[in-house]
Amino acid sequence: MERRGFLKGMTAAGVLSMFDPAYLAAKEKVQAGDNPDKPLERRIYGRTDERLSIIGFGGILVMNTTPQEASDFVSKAVDRGVNYFDVAPSYGNAQDCLGPALKPHRQKVFLACKTVKRDAAGAKEELEASLKTLQTDHFDLYQLHALTKVEEVEQVFAPGGAMETFLKAKQDGKIGHIGFSAHDEKAALAAQERFDFDSILFPLGFPTWIKGEFGPAVHKRLKEAGRGILAIKAMAHRKWPESIKPENRRWNKAWYEPFDDMDKVALGLRFTLHLPVTAMLTPGHWDLFKMALDLAQAGALTPLNDNERKLAEEIASKSDRPALTTRSGPSLLRRALLLARQRRLVHCRRAMLSRSSPKVCVLLMPMMPTSSWNSSPVLGIEMGCLTVSGSGKLASKRSIRTTRSGRLS
Questions:
Q1: Is there a single domain that holds both residue 290 and residue 383?
Q2: Do 258 and 355 have their domain in common?
């Protein structure tokens, strides 16, 4: 059966029958409000003896909360077995809220923090400020935050770069492990080539993995190296629709639209957990975090069966705005050529990658008049196109950029 037609015509009961019986039984316990009957699973962190809870506590959970609310959230999480906490200076006032709330539990948890600074002096200043604000003398994991360009990777490893601060801080006992977070495959792969990091924090959700082919290359490299694999966006659906203004967003601490239906939340967590990964951070809202925790402790995070995997593919195929930034060049090229052929917009004669930026340059022979392209939803990428005539001679050269809606402009 074609993927896009997999759910067409199915009743709610039919869709329900696709789910793993073990998952459905666990889901019933969650919906009934039963007390958790399983300890929260912990997995080995990379090549260390550390074990992290598979559900982590993102610092945004306590952003803009009162001291009492922050204390209650942290205490409840720790009581339920959560020992992996992650925060960053760029998360509003999250550090200010988390520091006092976490202090009574500090010796029992694995605390990760980050810096966006790429130079040694800036990274040192931000590290010392975070240690003070979070009321601790060390971080179990310190990470380069949000690497998005290969040039940033070069910068942090250059003389006077941030890695000098990281290595000195580790020598001084202020850092236990060194990692980074990234939203770009090329930057993530380049960083792994430069240093033996202990872990990477990376978007690994099924909509982007399936539809955008975003994640497999990075995950494969991590798994081969035995590094810790920390996941964000396991519960991410898509970028927020432009029609929903920021002030009207229910989950206003998430820059992407998260899944909030329990079956879809579970589908996302189960897909990501069994890639596999070490641990997953949820969106920054207590209700979503608690749902993930409830599902995990009820035993609901079982591996996906074949039907559930098809369901994930169906949902991903309809996600027109996947929550990702950029993918690696080769993957981008494959995706461009695949979509072009599937939509029968072009017949590709030759293709090559641009080395200077994540673009695809393709030599195309139109299978429909160029004038009809603007009304055709096609590739969600930028391309430089050489249009050739039926005889194969160069007819025109133009640059085409798709809009966010996926239409050519």
A1: no
A2: no
